[in-house]
Amino acid sequence: MMGSCVVPVLIGLVLLQMHKISECHKIEVTPDSGTIVVFTKKPDQDLDCDVCKDEGPSQSCNSKLDLAEARPTIVTFNCSQPGDVFTVEINQKIDCSATACSIIAVHPDSTRFLEFNRTFNWDLKVQSSHMFQLDFPAPGMRQIKPSESCPDKHTYTIITYQRSGPNSIGTFCRNGTISRIQALFKGRVSLEVPKDTALNPSDFKVSIGPDTEALVVVDVKLPRGLPSVEFFTPNYGTGHYSEDKMKWNFAVEPMQNFTVLFQHYTPPACQKEKVLVGYALGDKTSFTTDPKDIQPFNKQGDFSLTLTNCEAKKGSNGLSLNINVTVFRGGTPYFCTVDLRNEEGLSLQIENKNPESSCEMSLNSVAQEKIVVPAGTKADLSFLDCPVQDLQLTATKTIDCPSASSRDTSGTSLTIPTLDPSLHVPLHQFTWLLRVLDPGTVDLTSPIKVLHQSVPDKECNDRVSLLISETDGSNIGQFCSLAEGTIQKIQIKGNVSITVTPKTIKDLSQEKGSFLKVAMSPEINENVIYTVSPSVSGPMYLATPNWPDGLNPSSSVTWIVSVPQEHKVELQFTNVSKPVCDSGHTEVAISPLDPQGQTQSWREDQIFVNTVIQQQSFFLNVSNCEPKSGSFAVLSKVTLYKEAKNFLSIILAVVGVLLLLVIIALIVVCVILKRKKKPMTNRSSIFLPRGKPFLPGNATFPKSRADNESHVYASIDDSTMYGNFADKNQPAEVDNRPWSNGHQVDAYHPFTGPSDSTPSAKDSSAEYSMDGRGGDRDAYQPFLSPPNTFNLARPRSPLVSQGSIRFEDRRMIDNELHTFKSFGDINPIRLSADESRLQPQMGSDTDSNTEPEYEEAI
């Protein structure tokens, strides 16, 4: 019976020992150079668990293990959960007493000893008269009470070692206002992290500080918008007994006011001296006060606070003080009210774009970094020390577009609504969100001019610029309304975003006109369709949406290009980027609007034709594939020309007219030259009493002087002919060159023809005509005196032929040159019809023509 009970007990003991061996935990530890790893058993743990170093016969086990050698070491725990029993300390020494140093304290691997409570210690040492300096990365450290813990479970503690003993500078967390801490001589920085918490430390910098008599110096940066900050004296809660100085330097932002308040002050039992508080405001003002007095209130600028302790009695209260610094804004804010309840779908957003500015904005009395006024609400805004140039106001208006089947055909004009005049902030940007409720297409047109797309070669220079985007946020392009634009309409499938920004103006609220007109049409297959009309004034550019970035995958765009009659278009692909397609192909297709026309198309794996000529309106379609790599973007240039044949016909017509004019001119010149080649007689003036003197023109004798005897006279009575001139010393010879002016003078020949009785002419005015019937027709014409006036009466017809020898002219009676034998008055009768035919015929080239008779010029 007894044996049967012992056997199970022995078996149980063996199994228990095997279970204990199986519960052992083994890890490998390799300390960093200059680092000591210490495993320590918690003092309140009674569990039988030891830590062992190495394996085999050399193994040693204890409740504490120190590892200092930088080599791999096997550490074994004879329990399954050593993290509940042991803690780990990682200690590193930084000695800056011999030489100057500047070291960044780098923490170990965050995954090491994750199952233990960890404490990281940095032991610091400098020269006895100096301070060690700790610089913390932004945003700095925050001091807490010793009984508190940090939200991220990373708690720092700073201790300084003095002759009187260790002094705890304080307990700190990350994300605070303390940028630097300086402590005297030597000390320790500790970081405690609980188990199962990943290490996320602040890699602070260690260096040698200045020579000072203070125990600790804390540098603080007080940002805007922080209501209050707390600081605690060393050994807070237990009391500080040494006669030391503690100093805090505060940097305050401009336009900020501060107030200092002492809380939970515990005065020490001073043996000598007393506790004093000294302030230095700026560079000039400094004063000293008692901790129980009122501290500085509503002051501006940087300041420092120095707390000097007395030597307190041991066993009594030590110095303990909680310092509270409150920061707030000074000045008078500007208030305004924004009411958006009457403007459907309109919302506002105001931002301060200058991070260095002291601007403070509030929405409904709550300080905000960015003010957002939702649509359909009313808000009270305030601005304190906010320059207008630092503020940026943007507005967004949501418009629900009606379906294409509705009866609304007038469309909607996009205009900027009038904002509250009390809001003195320039409008920097305005956005319309066009939401399509039913499947349809948004049609965009310019109400006054036509649209132009801004491309690098031809950017917009208008007052404002319009950014048009699709629903997914991809940009279609930048556009502006210009007179020289070519885009008549843009059609976009789905929701559209249109954002207007100023280019040459500062405030969009000054623009009161309509920017675009929006209408709805049935849904299209392409993502975007442009309707364009190129101009002969210059080239236009067609850029795919989101240029210079690529088209969206599996999207397409079409341009409808109108070509006027008697014109042609040169389409040139100036910039094309091709992707590597994962599925499908990219395609560029050119199709005439005439369905009978021929379509040209290219894929990404084909060579593009650089230039295409189109003589009629056409479609240009660009579609993308599902790219594997790269992007698909196309930039083309469209140039409109007049047809060359029209210019050729005009040129030929002009040349023909000019040729005809040249031929006519040549004919005229030839005729004139031929007439000038004929022998020309010298012109002689004929005196007509009470008539006008004139030249006989081109009237010539029908025969040359060598062929006729018209210049031969039988006899000349010199006394009768030249008697009147002899008294005046005139030349007596007819052939005298100066007198005749070089003209040939005919000689007189007596008339031998029949004579008839002719009454004497009563009027002295007569014309001399030639008998055109046989014989020599040349007759002597006497030289007459010039008339006294140019307004002469019309000459009258003589009663008898002036060619008769019996003709007598009274005007020649007193003239010794007259040679007529009888006298008579000229009957004032005009020339008859028969006599008029005796006038000279111009243009005759035959010698048989009579010598012309000259009439008075009227």
TrEMBL record:
Residues 222-323, 526-638 form the CDCP1 third and sixth CUB domain. Keywords: Membrane, Signal, Transmembrane, Transmembrane helix. Residues 26-96 form the CDCP1 first CUB domain. Residues 848-858 have a biased composition (Acidic residues). Residues 1-24 form the signal peptide. The keyword Membrane applies. Residues 754-767, 838-847 have a biased composition (Polar residues). The keyword Secreted does not apply. The chain crosses the membrane at residues 647-673. SUPFAM superfamilies: Spermadhesin, CUB domain. It comes from the Eukaryota. Residues 104-208, 428-508 form the CDCP1 second and fifth CUB domain. It holds the Pfam family CUB_CDCP1_2. Residues 726-782, 831-858 are annotated as: Disordered. PANTHER family: CUB DOMAIN-CONTAINING PROTEIN 1. This is CUB domain-containing protein 1. It comes from Phoxinus phoxinus (Eurasian minnow).
